[in-house]
Amino acid sequence: MKGKSKMKITRIETIWLDEQPNTTWVRIHTDEGLIGLGETYYVPRAISAVVHDVFANLLLGCDPFDIEKHWQNMFSTVNFFGFAGSETRAISAVDVALWDIVGQYTGQPIYNLLGGRCRESIRIYNTCAGHGTYQDYQTWRDGHAGELAEDLLKSGIKAMKIWPFDQFGTSLGGPVGQRAGAEAVGPVTHYLSKENLKKGISYVEDIRNSVGDKMEIAIEGHARWNLPEATKIARALEPYDIMWLEEIIPADNIESYARLKADTTIPLCVSERLFTRFGFRQVVEANAADIIMPDMAWTGGLTETRKICSLADTYYLP
User: DSSP alpha helices (H): ranges in the chain?
Assistant: First the structure.
């Protein structure tokens, strides 16, 4: 393995494409010809502005190996005016790009640089969305969740995630509310009828009727529900052995999550919407989740996600 380099960061690019309009890629160029690639999601123009107007002055001419130093400098700078949001997403993309450079230079996979692998394989699940010819979302929404589960099992995938209750949430309305995927975004909803609760459960029933317990099922909530309705959903799902219930209420009131956790047997998964270890500290200290789920592309990159994982591990949480 090569030792520490003397290379310098010479240029930073931000890229977004019409095909993936909410994704921002960050490319960090060095004087030795290596280019690190990182990415994040949502508001690409805002993220690009943070990268070029704020972070470039902290990074250009510096050694890409000094990842922890760069993270602290970026975070301290944006924390002056509030770090959560586009600022932390921008840190995430830059951080991953820096790790990519170090991996390329040393010729090592990143897991070796973090201390080596701790398992030979890892389970995966299918988020049943869609892209190109793979339109999983439309398949299960059209009433074929069981068929989709059968197809996934044939591919060796034994866990799937769907969001059957979003369609009953309060709509944003107007042109924005008509966009693809808009059901996942909107005001917190305060009422779910018995009819719609039954309809949401029917997708889960279809999977169980088709493949039994061979498929694990996770339910995504996109933070669309208030506490009473989330409790109603959780209790209705309990007979179906759900793998986890994810972000069924907003993560900005951790006490409410702790109350929900006490009222259901389904493991609660919290939360891709939280930023940095400081947001997750409140969750674990309040005993408000069974599963900690940071999004590396949002919460501060690989550097910060590793710290969040250590925090969760301290409390024996996955």
Answer: 44-50, 56-59, 67-79, 86-106, 110-113, 136-139, 145-154, 174-177, 194-211, 227-237, 254-262, 276-285, 301-314
